[in-house]
């Protein structure tokens, strides 16, 4: 906005006759040319944003892409991303599918196959693992902006499209499929809207089918995204008094994708018997607290700023969002999907995590954008204030991230403690598989070669009430060169070893209960490394 003000001052933009007519409509009445120019400047800025929305959208897209790429390279990978990397390092796409069938990763294999193609040409590994998600996340912003721009004024459309980027920014640089799923969801909505509007209908229907099939192949829960579209099509069918067979054909590939992936879905059942995150009713309010509450705070900030600052009438009024009835049905249903999916997961005893239906945030963002316009009583300044708030929140969050040194998500303290140890030949048993995966990639070679992870699903069930990690690590042992061994083999072959454990790990107290001597290496500091002997 500051750059635009400088440009206006430098080139001395004068209002043309159409612009003067527009300012008169907006309520600008000036008695002197100087006063008219000063009072019309906000209207000129607002008009420029509405006349050149794609330039502003491209600027925000570049900001989002650059910030995400910096995070891709700078942030250290955590266990889920290291699972992706381990799968992508398989010999071929066929081997990745086989490893998925064996249970080496609970995610569909397509994302790992994409990373497998990128690894030889993209460096570092973290960038190769995260780049597809980053591009998909940026695609979400662009497609959502294009969707909203046909129904909202440009500033409000930009703010609405940028809201998910603020509340879901973590997934722009996480090396899993969620960024691509978000991009496909927004692309499907845009293609659906364009097909209904009659803009290159055949191409749009093909794009819709491709987006739906791809997001379902990336994550199986994405199949629930069909429900908002089906509800909207039922509403449209009732008003048109005839079904749209082209739309039905575009949605059909989802069933084909699920059918092809059925053997992989069946292989996941072993992880769902004692999953670490079973579905619970409390996850419904948690989802809306995490994703909707920040949007409401930005909404209150925007409306409150307008009430306090009382922007000049030169800004004028902005038209209210003119979503069609079937589009509103899709948005409302999309926003309510967390309730339905959690309820279904609870009733069927399936696991659930917030990120499984992250695409519902898109509906929440469009509701928040529409509510901002209504709460501000149509004042044109509302969109600009909301846009500044969302972009400012994004930049502030990125600045905080850049100010802190990169660290391992869960194993940093353990790695620091191991680095302080003198060189020795004693094996290092790592109690937590999250910490083990991080240390196996990021620790020094002298430490990395000594690391061992003991697999014991029964002990995990006894102490943790889930065995997901043990099952994954047991399958990963057959597919990687990581030092993953059976628990009993580790104890039988190593009467004396070092144990690296965080305070919440159960192995130190379990070994004490078996009669082992468990002595902290440095009793005065945080007890993270122990010497264990029979």
Summarize the structure.
The protein is mainly alpha-helical.
Strand content: under 5%
Low-confidence stretches: 1-42
- Structural class by SSE content: mainly alpha
**So what's the overall shape?**
globular
Q: Give the averaged pLDDT, no decimals.
A: 87
**Strand runs, count:** 6
What is the helix fraction of residues, given as a range? 55-70%
Oligomeric description of these chains: single chain
Largest sheet: spatial strand order: 3-2-1-4-6-5
| Rg over C-alpha atoms, rounded to the nearest angstrom | 27 Å
Ends distance? 69 Å
Describe it.
The chain is mostly helical and 534 residues long. It has three domains: 2-48, no CATH class; 55-403, no CATH class; 412-533. Helices cover 65% and strands 5% of the residues. The chain is built from 27 helices and six strands. The chain has a six-stranded mixed β-sheet, sandwiched between helices. A hairpin with an 8-residue loop joins strand 5 and strand 6. Helix 8 runs antiparallel to helix 9 and helix 17 (283-309) runs parallel beside helix 19. The protein is globular. Residues 1-42 have low confidence and may be disordered.
């Amino acid at each position: 906005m500051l750059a635009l003000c400088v440009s206006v001052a430098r080139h001395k933009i004068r209002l043309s006759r159409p612009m003067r007519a527009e300012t008169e409509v907006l309520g600008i009445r000036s008695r002197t040319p100087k006063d008219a120019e000063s009072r019309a400047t906000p209207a000129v800025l607002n008009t420029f944003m509405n006349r050149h929305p794609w330039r502003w959208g491209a600027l925000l897209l570049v900001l989002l892409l650059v910030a995400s790429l910096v995070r891709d390279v700078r942030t250290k990978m955590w266990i889920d991303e290291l699972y992706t990397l381990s799968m992508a390092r398989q010999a071929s796409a066929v081997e990745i599918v086989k490893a998925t069938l064996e249970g080496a990763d609970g995610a569909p294999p397509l994302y790992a196959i994409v990373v497998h193609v990128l690894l030889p040409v993209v460096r570092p590994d973290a960038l190769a693992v995260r780049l597809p998600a980053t591009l998909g996340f940026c695609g979400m912003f662009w497609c959502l902006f294009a969707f909203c721009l046909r129904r909202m004024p440009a500033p409000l459309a930009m703010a609405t499209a940028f809201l998910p980027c603020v509340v879901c920014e973590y997934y722009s640089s996480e090396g899993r499929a969620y960024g691509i799923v978000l991009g496909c969801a927004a692309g499907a909505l845009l293609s659906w809207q364009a097909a209904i509007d009659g803009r290159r209908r055949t191409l749009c229907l093909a794009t819709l089918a491709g987006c739906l099939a791809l997001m379902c192949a990336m994550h199986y829960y994405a199949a629930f995204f069909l429900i908002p579209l089906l509800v909207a099509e039922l509403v449209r069918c009732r008003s048109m008094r005839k079904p749209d067979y082209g739309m039905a054909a575009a949605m059909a590939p989802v069933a084909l994708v699920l059918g092809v992936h059925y053997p992989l879905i069946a292989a996941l059942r072993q992880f769902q018997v004692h999953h670490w995150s079973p579905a619970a009713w409390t996850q419904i309010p948690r989802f809306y607290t995490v994703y909707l509450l920040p949007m409401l705070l930005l909404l209150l900030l925007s409306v409150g700023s307008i009430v306090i600052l009382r922007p000049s009438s030169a800004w004028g009024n902005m038209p209210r969002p003119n979503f069609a009835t079937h589009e509103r049905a899709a948005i409302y249903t999309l926003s309510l999907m967390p309730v339905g999916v959690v309820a279904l997961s609870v009733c069927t005893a399936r696991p659930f995590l917030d990120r499984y239906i992250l695409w519902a945030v898109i509906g929440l963002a469009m509701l928040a954008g529409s509510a901002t316009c209504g709460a501000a009583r149509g004042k044109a300044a509302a969109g600009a204030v909301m846009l500044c708030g969302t972009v400012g929140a994004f930049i502030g969050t990125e600045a905080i991230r850049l100010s802190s040194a990169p660290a391992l998500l869960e194993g940093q303290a353990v790695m620091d403690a191991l680095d302080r140890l003198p060189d020795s030949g004693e094996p290092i048993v790592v109690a937590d598989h999250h910490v083990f995966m991080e240390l196996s990639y990021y620790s020094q070679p002298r430490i990395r070669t000594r690391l061992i992870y003991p697999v014991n699903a029964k002990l995990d069930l006894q102490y943790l009430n889930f065995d997901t990690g043990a099952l994954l690590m047991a399958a990963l042992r057959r597919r990687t060169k990581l030092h993953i061994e059976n628990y009993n083999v580790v104890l039988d072959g190593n009467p004396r070893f070092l144990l690296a454990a965080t305070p919440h790990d159960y192995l130190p107290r379990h070994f004490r209960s078996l009669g082992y001597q468990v002595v902290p290496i440095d009793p005065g500091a945080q007890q993270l490394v122990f010497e264990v002997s029979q």
